[in-house]
Amino acid sequence: MIFDRLLRPVRGLRAARFTLLAMFVLPGMPLLEASAADQEEEKGLQIARDARKQDEGFGNFAAGMSMVLRNKKGQESLREVRVKVLEAENDGNMSLFVFDQPRDARGTALLIHGHKDRSDDQWLYLPALKRVKRISSSNRSGSFMGSEFTYEDMTVQEVEKFTYRYLRDEPCGDGLDCVVTERVPVEKGSVYRRQVVWRDKAELRVWKVEYFDRKDAHLKTLTLGEYQQYLESYWRAGKMVMVNHLTGKSTDLVWTDYQFRTDIDERDFTRTGLRRVR
Amino acid sequence: MPSRITVRLLCFGVCLIGVSVYTVSSRAQAAIAEIDFTGRLSAESRWFPQPALFPDQGSNASGFVAIPNLYLEDEAGRVLSITPFFRYDSADARRTHFDLREAYILLTGALGNGEWELRLGIDRVFWGVVESRHLVDIVNQIDLVEHPDEKTRMGQPMAYVTWSSNWGVLELLGMTYHRARTFPGSKGRLRASLIVDDERVEYEGSSGKWHPDFAARYSHTLGLMDFGVSVFDGTARDPTLGLCLDCGGQPGQSSPPGPPALYPTYERIRQFGVDAQWTTGSLLLKLEAIRRTGARNLLSTEEDYNAFVVGGEYSLFSLLGSDSDLTLFVEWDRDGRGRRATNFYENDLFAALRFMLNDVQGTEVTASVLHDLDRSQRIYGLELARRLTDTWSVNLESVAITNIDASDLYYDLRRDGFVQFSLDYHF
To answer: Which of A4, A103, A137 minimises the CB distance to B390?
Structure first.
């Protein structure tokens, strides 16, 4: 009774806050890198740098994101989120996430002001109480809305956060000519020991990521596909599938209605704008 | 049975909606760009394990809640939002009630390098940061029959302007038509020995509930700090309860005098408030403080006072390598009037643990205690929430009141601990 009952819509969203941002940035700009001691590391670093450069200048975009969560028995659960992102010139991007499914979280919204030099600012809007709450941004490895995606899977990777190594060339995606690199988190707090990433050479799009846990067991595999190019520059995956090999659970993530350079402006990314979300 | 006040409010709301619809639809070629109909239906049951203290009271109360929302937005971004609320309660006719939680039009525009926003109609406004109580939050009346935690708020007619830019957010509110607090009837639990007469509501000053009330708040974010300073000048939301020997104790029996009852008086008050939160890593530090003048204390004498809540929350994310999060809340509630305070937060320690599984069902368990530091009473709360499907969810809540002192304001509630089950459908 004494506890604020109306905070409940937050449940399951906690893990999300950090980072949805990165989800859609993932295909375009992951690996950034460390010092290049040998040629393999140099090559890995250059690939990541080039990939990142390709995603600059998009301005803003809006998209819909729907996830199908599937457990071992094949039972499904649906998550739907609307996303808006505004590219900032000198700081991290601003993003807004509005939850439509599950229905009990409907109207709940998450606002993130990303920062390059410090942790992000995040506010959650709880429609039942019309409350805007500033929330912590230090969650890293939690599940996003009960899915197989975690914060770490989706976050924008800063250069210093990984070391890279070029592994080999091999075909990936739909028989594309691809390059395989390995990235190792520098930070000890990571739930992963290493990740292996497949990119096509032509456009540097990510087609597959394998995640290995601290004991170096193959924990999860992310497969990306249905890429489309927007504004003749920006590639976005239409579908991402994350499979957890330990639990047998999986999450299908589908992106819809990508719109670049819409009439989104900074007013959509304020605390007062957050109160108006629909 | 809706009271006269409710009926009047309903009329007011309907008129307002009419005007709003007319305004929105008649303006130019305003085509509706978005229509959204959402909401919640709940079936609820409360069980009181201990025998009732007063003869009319029972051990069970069941009922349902409907809270739909109609949202219209035209191509110019003008919004009309209507949220009625209705509860049916099998035990207490007073708890069966209707309210217009929202019925407003919303207009926005650019102003300088910032923006303005106007909300006209019935709306709810939330100010504050702490969890144990809502101290600074003053714009809306408490719908007390909903839950004894005093956190459910009723709709309030207002003109509400917000101006925001890189210097912060400034909110200005003009309000009238004061809403009287709801109180349980004779058959309801969680009440004092005397019924609060809802037909006799008194106000300080001749303009009564039509007195114009004003409120303002400035808030801003500076790095890790979010803060707000607010002022309210107008009719109190908290009533002073007086003894009435000739009131009808039962609603609807106005002519023959009933048993003694209580009647609410709403004074003119002024309140200054501060709320602040410092968000660093997994730790949130919070403060809410007020200074209120013009209100009466428990002895019915006017007393200016300060009150504050200070505390924080700390989260352990991905507990022991699992998907679960554990959050600890600790807050200290203090009211400068001490035992003359008109609420039970005179000097209390609040502690809570919230365990979130972060599973597909969004399972969440919260345990809390509100411990009176001057006396021995404690109020325990336990809550379990879980999603069943994408549209259905359940909520189980239990409240226990222990060691309550005979001198305490809430002594009459000593047997009113309850267990509540709710099945919710979201659409």
So the answer is: A103
Locate all alpha helices (DSSP H) within B254-402, ordered by sequence. Answer: none
Which stretches of A111-241 are DSSP H helices? Answer: 151-154
**Using H for helix, E for strand and C for coil, what is the string for B51-112?**
CCCCCCCCCEEEEEEEEEEEEEEECCCCEEEEEEEEEEECCCCCCCEEEEEEEEEEEEEEEC
Q: Compute the distance between CA of residue B359 and CA of residue A247 in angstroms, rounded to an integer.
A: 13
How distant is the alpha carbon of residue B237 from its chain centre?
A: 11
Amino acid in position B236: A
CA torsion through residues B56, B58, B62, B68, sign = positive
Each residue of B11-24: pLDDT tens digit? 555 556 656 555 65
Of A119, A130, A137, the CB nearest to B125: A130
Whole-angstrom distance, CA of residue B99 vs CA of residue B195: 21
Q: Which of B44, B138, B23, B42 is nearest to B92 (CA)?
A: B44
Token pair recorded at residue B170: 């400034």
Q: Alpha carbon of B112 to those of A55, B77, B118, B171, B294: distances in Å?
A: 31, 19, 16, 16, 39
- Measured between CB atoms, does B117 come within 8 Å of chain A? yes
Q: Are B234 and B269 in contact (CB under 8 A)?
A: yes
Q: Which of helix, strand or coil describes residue B16?
A: helix
What's the pLDDT tens digit per position in B98-130?
A: 999 999 999 999 998 899 999 999 999 999 999
pLDDT tens-digit readout, A247-265: 999 999 999 999 999 988 8
How many other C-beta atoms are found inside a 10 Å radius of the C-beta of residue B273? 23
Q: What domains lie within chain A, and their CATH numbers? A: 5-275 (2.50.20.10)
CA distance A103 to B104: 23
Do the beta carbons of residue B336 and residue B345 sit within 8 Å?
A: no
**Arithmetic mean of pLDDT, B336-354:** 92
What long-range pairs does A244-247 form, CB within 8 A, spacing at least 24?
A244/A148, A244/A219, A244/A220, A245/A218, A245/A219, A245/A220, A245/A221, A246/A217, A246/A219, A247/A72
**Alpha-carbon span A5 to B361, nearest angstrom:** 17
Give CA A230 to chain center in angstroms. 19
- For A20, B158, B205, B210, the CA distances from B177, given in Å and listed in that order, are 44, 9, 14, 5
- Residue located via tokens 């004074």: B267
Query: Residues 6 or more apart from A28 whose CB is under 8 A from it?
Result: A51, A52, A54, A55, A205, A234, A235, A236
Q: Where are the domains of chain B?
A: 4-426
Domain B4-426 homologous superfamily, CATH: Porin (2.40.160.10)
Residues in A touching B169 (Cβ below 8 Å): 270-272
ipTM comes to: 0.90
Of B79, B221, B379, the CB nearest to A2: B379
